[in-house]
Amino acid sequence: MSIVTESPRGACVLGGINDVLGAVDRFCPIYHSGPGCCMQTTAGEHSNSPFLSAVSLPCTNMLEKDVVFGAEKKLRSTIEGAIEIIEADAYFVLVGCTAGIIGEDVESVVRDYREQGKRVYAIDTPGFQGDGLLGYEVVWDAFLDNIVEKGLPKKKGLINLLGIIPFRDPFWSGNFEELTRILRKLGLEVNTFFTEHQGFENIRTSSQAELNIIVNPYLLKSAAERYEKDFGVPSLRFPQLPVGATDTTEFIRLVAERLDIDKKLTERVIAEEEDYVYSYLSYKGESLGWNRFAVVGDSGTATGITRYLANDASQTPLLVVITEPMYRSEDKQRIIDRISDLEYAHPPRIVFESDYYKIIRQLEKFPDIDMIVGSSNEREYCAENGIFCSVMTFPIYDKTIINRSLIGYRGSLTLTEDLYNFN
Amino acid sequence: MISRYDGIRENRPYTYNDAGGQSKDFEQNFRKKCLKNADRTFSQGLQCQQINGLNAIMSLDDSVFISHSPQGCTGCSTLGVIQYRIGQAHRGVNIIRNPRLIATNLDQNDIILGGEKKLTEAVLSAEKRYSPKMIFVVTSCASGIIGDDVDAILKELQKKIKAILIPIHCEGFKSKVCASGFDAFFIALSKYILKGKKSETQKGLINLFAPVSISYKDQLEIERMLGRIGLTANYIPFYSNYENILKIPDAEASTAICKVFADEFMKQLETDYGIPYSHTVMPIGIRNTDKWLRGIAALVGKSDEAERIIEEEHKRIQPQIDRIRQRLQGKRVFICGGTGRSFAAAALIDDYGMKLVGLETPTYDKDAQTDIEHLNSIHGDYTVDIANMQPFEQVNLLKKLDPDVFIGVPTWASKLGIPTTHVLDMKRPTMGYDGILYLGNKIADQIENPGFNKKLAAHSKLPYRQSWYEKDAFKFIKETGGGEI
Q1: Which of A146, A262, A304, B167 could form a disulfide with A243 if both were Cys (CB 3.0 to 4.6 A apart)?
Q2: 0.80 cut: is pTM over it?
Q3: Given CB atoms, is B169 within the 8 Å cutoff of chain A?
Q4: Residue B52: pLDDT over 50
């Protein structure tokens, strides 16, 4: 279902799988692939994991003879080597195009190791089957198949926070931290799976959660259904990243209502947080001026940023380009509805386009744009046309991001800082 | 021109990519042709040749680059994009461009039905969108295994496309050595652009082949040195263009900045166009820089000028080198790098009186033997790991050898608390006479101030089991039989 794409964003399925495995503490991917896939997926998703990434990832490095004769023996010795030297809590065999096309039976190989009591799992979705976003879906399916435990007692106040893809969201760690901070003020315990050294145990016991909170318009549809059906964990979908006071407050109220959290507590948290934000905006907010803007990026981020700039910052939205390939029309509609539902501003034009050249042609249709919030890819067009460019969406080539957040209450202030410009 | 070299580095005689041991043993065994072919039964991810094939071209002007592959194989193009953007900024370009890269995005249907339709669409889009002079198509594992006949598809398309269509055959699974991808690019250049044509030889014009890892500062320093002996560089392929590529056969001579870059291509230029070449060393450190300059000067009859310049340059920098030497003398060093950089770094540490205790380099071959012989004569016996990265072996060796400084990618050594530094800097100087001083100061400063690494080591842990550090670093290297390929 993939289409020819100029400057595609991110890597293949393996990239998305590796994003997740790289962010969970002490998970070890093992690539059954040609040489190069480890680097390609790490570079393509900017996923330099603190545990294993790029040239540190165990790999069978399949060569021509392996493609002709198969490489099961090599896979076994690589798995055994990985277990021998790498101190991981679980090992996952990923399948590259080479192994996928020749039809290597990785499932039966890993079964042997599991029978010996080792945590070795296969994620048998070869690279050519899709992009990193599919990888994010696939890896959760693998967790649900293999790790998440049935029959555990429910734990009041435990939630699974889903929908932010590590590394693919350049601000993932900060974003998780900000949402966790807010949710904890409501008395909740938060599984992010990727921050604070969360790991295998958090995934295994995620079935104890009261609720999955998915902060994305479409990701994890099937995982959410399985969590509900097989593990009794329902899901609440918030169709974007909540950015700024308005949407974050809405987010909190939805969560609180769903989990029956004390109304007084909820309103006190909201009041505190909004006071914090406006204590700054009350004397710093004017620096923003007035901009007619476009946003180019993935749906969750683009929706959040557009709504913040329009609703909370009184900027004028002209165009939103959603850059993921979208296949389900109901997903598109959910995004269109959410972006169009603005308090005061006129809704912008919304297009779905992942091809770089075509994205630029869309931007050209709005010669009045003063500001583009996009990826590093959009810098060229902005430079050519004297447009202020703030880089906030994937891929980002020109800054190092450690733990800053652009979402929630506090993150929206950081976002606002980044909008100061000469225009 | 049909190339005589097949572009697969490990197919060259006496080439080894998996080995470990002591340098003296390597020297002797190679001389006696007793080195054994081996393979690792456990290894970490390599760099594939497609990564090099694509990154070799991504800063060429007037070009569109097509990756005939699933989306993932454009992953490392991010490195090319970053380098291209930085390179433009350093060259004073105001409006920094993106490289025009199109992925055919092969999926499961294409794996079954073939990718011809998507490749055709990509080529037509490339022409329509940008009217380029050159459209490069790099192949991938997927396109190779499903048997897409890229040459035939492009030959047919060429009839209606103005741009020159250039297939680069760099399927990842075909080679273990990523530098093969550079060769694939040069083979394609010969076959589809140069095609044996040549105008008049331009006196004083030198083909200067340089990989993407060369900073603009290094380019300027190399051009400065060449300028001093009256030569002008045709800098290929980075930030170059179609016209400069066409000038390649008109050069008086060729040389390269990296040992594994264009070495086979220069041989071919000599055969096809009678252009002599100098294939010596990477010009890092005094001895190497001298050797590199002498090599090129000899080809164009400027040896006397070169000697005069070398003397002048030595006089200019020697006092500063002596000062830096006092800070570095006797420090024990472990070096890891690509083929060119690792040996170049080893040469550099001689200028500063440092002692080599370990060397990690991707390939052992005739060229490596020459370097090892020289290094053995200075440093005696030291550990050699023939590996493309393989950080698990590196950290094992580092724990045992406990060097004063690690030269190479710092990611893992830093977590062991070892001071780290590097001679690969894609933004700053490393080469020529000015580069020696820059690197000397950098190494000395970084060794003297290891605070970051010391504190990092106290707070972080590498992913390996404690037991691994007690085992033989080379235990996974298993002989596959036969001393020769």
Answers
A1: A304
A2: yes
A3: no
A4: yes
